[in-house]
Specification:
The longest helix has 30 residues, at about 1-30. The chain is built from four helices and two strands; from the N terminus they run αβαααβ. It has about 100 residues and is mainly alpha-helical. It is elongated. The chain starts with a helix and ends in a 5-residue tail after the last strand. Helices cover about 60% and strands about 5% of the residues.
Length: about 100
């Protein structure tokens, strides 16, 4: 029984540590808006609300076919992305100056 308690405490400590690392890394991502012209699909899916793997890949595909986005509002040109989704994410994403 003592061994079981020891193992459970050890697992709980590791879980708390892992959650802390996840919280800190997520907070750092949220502090700096993600550039939609340089982000990969996984980053887009993690950072943007309402964007999963499929929509994130559609953003990447559109960018590769049509060039860089000039503003975050250009995301509405991507199939499946509407103005409400762009508005919901406006503080999380950005477009660096495109020349």
């Amino acid at each position: 029984m003592k061994h079981f308690i020891y193992v459970m405490r050890s697992l709980m400590k590791r879980a708390v540590f892992a959650m802390s690392v996840l919280f800190i890394s997520t907070s750092l991502w949220a502090a700096t808006p993600l550039d939609i012209n340089t982000a990969n699909a996984k980053e887009l899916a993690v950072v943007m609300k309402g964007v999963g793997d499929k929509k994130a890949q559609a953003i990447i595909d559109y960018r590769e076919q049509h060039g860089l986005f000039k503003s975050i509002e250009d995301l509405v040109k991507v199939k499946g992305i509407g103005s409400a989704l762009v508005s919901r994410n406006q503080t999380l994403i950005r477009v660096q100056d495109v020349e």
